[in-house]
Design a protein that fits this description.
single chain, alpha/beta, 2 domains, eight-stranded parallel β-barrel, 8 strands, globular, binds 3-methyl-2-oxobutanoic acid
Length: 275
C-alpha cells in the first residue's frame, strides 16, 4: 500500500503502523527535524517518526526555553519537514498556549497544523488536565501523541530540568496520566527523563507505544533531538544523550578550511571557474 506521498516500495508509516510495531515488539525510532534538508536525511535513513519538536525554539531560534515559539513558526517548520519526507510519520508539537486555553483553541491549532502545515499527527504535553482536550482532537480525526514526565513547556512550574517522578506520588500520577491519555485516544506517548523502572511499568500497562527520551531501554521506542545526537551542540551533555557523530568539530574544520582557502586565494581554482 502506498499513501499520498509515500512511494510503493517504502509505504508511509502511519499511526496504525507504530501501534502494530508495539504489538510485534519492534522498536520504534523517532528523531527531530525542523527543516527540509534535515528531514530528507532523517527520512532517507529510514527513521520511523520525525518529530517537529518545539525544541525548534531552542535549537533553531536560540531561545532558552520552548515557550516563545508560536503556532505559525511551528507550522512553518512542519511544512518544510513534510516536504522532505516520503516515508516517516510526521508528528508536530503544538506549542505552549496553543492548546491549553480552550478546547476550541486546541482544535483550531491542531486543525491548522494538519490542514495548512500537512502534519500527520500532533503532540501535546500533559496528563489529566489535557486528556479531555486530547479526546476532542482525536474525535475530530486528528491523531495525538502524548508527552509525560519532564514536559519542557512547564519548566517554570518545575523550576529544574532534573529527572521527574522519582517519588511515589508523582510516579503514581504519571502512571494514571498515561492511562488517561490512552483512554482519551492517544496513539503513543513520549516519556521524558523519568526512572527506567517507571517507564517499564507504563510501557507494560499501556497498549499504545511509549517513546522514551532519558527513560531507559524498556520503552517501545526512542527519540533524540537530531542536532544533539549528531554532536552539533557541544554545550548539552545529559546522561541519556548518545552522540553518534561529532558534527560540531567536522563542520568547524570544514568552515575554517574554506575561510583559509578564500584568504589565501586558493579557492576557487581553475576547475572551479567558468571560461
Ligand atoms: O520538542 C522536542 O524535541 C521534544 C522531544 C525532546 C521529545 O518534545
Amino acid at each position: 500500500m502506498s499513501t499520498q506521498s509515500g512511494t510503493a516500495t517504502t509505504p508511509r508509516i502511519t499511526t496504525r503502523t507504530v501501534v502494530d510495531m508495539k504489538g510485534r515488539s519492534e522498536k520504534i525510532s523517532m528523531l527531530t527535524a525542523y527543516d527540509f534538508t534535515m528531514a530528507r536525511i532523517v527520512d532517507q535513513a529510514g527513521v520511523d517518526i520525525i518529530l517537529v519538536g518545539d525544541s525548534a525554539s531552542n535549537v533553531m531560534a536560540g531561545h532558552e526555553t520552548t515557550l516563545p515559539i508560536t503556532l505559525e513558526q511551528m507550522m512553518y517548520h512542519t511544512a518544510c519537514v513534510v516536504r522532505g519526507t516520503d516515508h516517516a510519520l510526521v508528528v508536530a508539537d503544538l506549542p505552549f498556549m496553543s492548546y491549553q486555553v480552550t478546547d476550541t483553541g486546541a482544535l483550531e491549532s491542531a486543525g491548522r497544523m494538519m490542514k495548512e502545515a500537512g502534519a500527520h499527527a500532533v503532540k501535546l504535553e500533559g496528563g489529566a488536565y489535557v486528556a479531555p482536550t486530547v479526546k476532542k482532537i482525536v474525535d475530530a480525526g486528528i491523531p495525538v501523541m502524548g508527552h509525560l514526565g519532564l514536559t519542557p513547556q512547564s519548566i517554570y512550574k518545575f523550576g529544574t530540568y532534573k529527572v521527574r517522578a522519582t517519588d511515589s506520588e508523582e510516579a503514581d500520577r504519571l502512571l494514571s496520566d498515561a492511562r488517561l491519555l490512552e483512554e482519551a485516544g492517544c496513539f503513543a506517548v513520549v516519556l521524558e527523563k523519568i526512572p527506567s523502572n517507571l517507564a517499564e511499568k507504563v510501557t507494560s500497562e499501556l497498549s499504545i507505544p511509549t517513546i522514551g527520551i532519558g527513560a531507559g531501554q524498556a520503552c517501545d521506542g526512542q527519540v533524540l533531538v537530531t542536532h544533539d545526537m549528531l554532536g552539533l551542540n557541544k554545550d548539552f551533555s545529559p546522561r541519556f544523550l548518545r552522540r553518534y557523530a561529532d558534527m560540531h568539530s567536522q563542520m568547524t574544520d570544514a568552515i575554517k578550511n574554506y575561510h583559509s582557502d578564500v584568504k589565501k586565494g586558493t579557492f576557487p581554482d581553475k576547475n572551479e571557474q567558468y571560461e
